[in-house]
């Protein structure tokens, strides 16, 4: 696989631990949800490195002046959770980026055709120049949802070079499509898995992330 975009798989025991919890089919929904919160937190931590708009300044300690680095609170920043499953990463991301605006995008895929349609779009008509956008999409499977999301964002003025994606599991096919259409992207994922089954699920993956996070799994 030759990719132009950059994919980071953090080599961090907390990321690996919570991925293992999320993958385990015996993990109950309430713990699955906690695992996704933690993955949202640590993947956001990794994604925000060299991306947050830091400024050099000085602060006065009780003893002397000290050089300091602070986040520019005026720099526009947005979180875009891709519903439903992306909501499970939101809490962890918001703890690190509390000043970011959150714009919800609801996408659903037809389980037969695997085509994606949008049922909720709370994106602004236009993003301010230089807006840093973090997309929360746990499963990069066929690539259809994330490509639709990126198209919606770039139509509204978002700069792909300032967009970062956090996902829990990514498939090579999704990464390939993203790389062809958005080579400037940076993606942070806990794991790249082998591929997809004939129903478009990532293998070994973790199953249906939305159903597991919201307790709506039905036995087949
Ligand atoms: N969506 C999921 O929730 N899981 C997959 O494996 C693929 C898409």
UniProtKB/TrEMBL annotation:
Uracil binds at residues 202, 207-209. One of its GO terms (cellular component) is cytoplasm. Its cofactor is Mg(2+). Belongs to the UPRTase family. GO terms for biological process: UMP salvage; uracil salvage. CDD domains: PRTases_typeI. Its EC number is 2.4.2.9. This is Uracil phosphoribosyltransferase. Pathway: Pyrimidine metabolism; UMP biosynthesis via salvage pathway; UMP from uracil: step 1/1. The keyword Glycosyltransferase applies. InterPro entries: PRTase-like, PRTase_dom, Upp_B, UPRT, UPRTase/APRTase. The gene is upp. 5-phospho-alpha-D-ribose 1-diphosphate binds at residues 84, 109, 137-145, 208. Allosterically activated by GTP. GO terms for molecular function: GTP binding; magnesium ion binding; uracil phosphoribosyltransferase activity. PANTHER family: ADENINE PHOSPHORIBOSYLTRANSFERASE, URACIL PHOSPHORIBOSYLTRANSFERASE, CHLOROPLASTIC. Pfam families: UPRTase. HAMAP family: Upp_B. Keywords: Allosteric enzyme, Glycosyltransferase, GTP-binding, Magnesium, Nucleotide-binding, Transferase. Binds 1 Mg(2+) ion per subunit. The magnesium is bound as Mg-PRPP. Residues 9-216 form the Phosphoribosyltransferase domain. It catalyses: UMP + diphosphate = 5-phospho-alpha-D-ribose 1-diphosphate + uracil. Transmembrane segments: none annotated. Catalyzes the conversion of uracil and 5-phospho-alpha-D-ribose 1-diphosphate (PRPP) to UMP and diphosphate.
């Amino acid at each position: 696989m030759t990719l132009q975009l950059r994919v980071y798989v953090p080599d961090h025991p907390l990321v690996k631990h919570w991925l293992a919890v999320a993958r385990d089919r015996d993990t109950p929904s309430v713990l699955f949800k906690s695992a996704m919160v933690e993955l949202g937190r640590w993947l956001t931590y990794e994604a925000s490195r060299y991306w947050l708009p830091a400024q050099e300044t000085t602060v006065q300690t009780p003893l002397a002046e000290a050089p300091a680095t602070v986040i520019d609170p005026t720099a526009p920043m947005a979180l875009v959770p891709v519903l439903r499953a992306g909501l499970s990463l939101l809490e962890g991301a918001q703890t690190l980026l509390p000043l970011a605006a959150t714009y919800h995008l609801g996408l659903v895929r037809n389980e037969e055709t695997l085509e994606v349609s949008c049922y909720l779009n709370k994106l602004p008509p236009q993003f301010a120049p230089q807006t840093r956008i973090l997309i929360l999409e746990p499963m990069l499977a066929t690539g259809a949802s994330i490509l639709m999301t990126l198209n919606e964002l770039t139509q509204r003025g978002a700069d792909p070079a300032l967009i970062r994606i956090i996902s829990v599991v990514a498939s090579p096919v999704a990464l390939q499509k993203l790389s062809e259409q958005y080579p400037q992207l940076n993606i942070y994922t806990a794991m790249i898995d082998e591929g997809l089954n004939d129903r478009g699920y990532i293998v070994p993956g973790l199953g249906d992330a939305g159903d597991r996070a919201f307790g709506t799994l039905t036995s087949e």
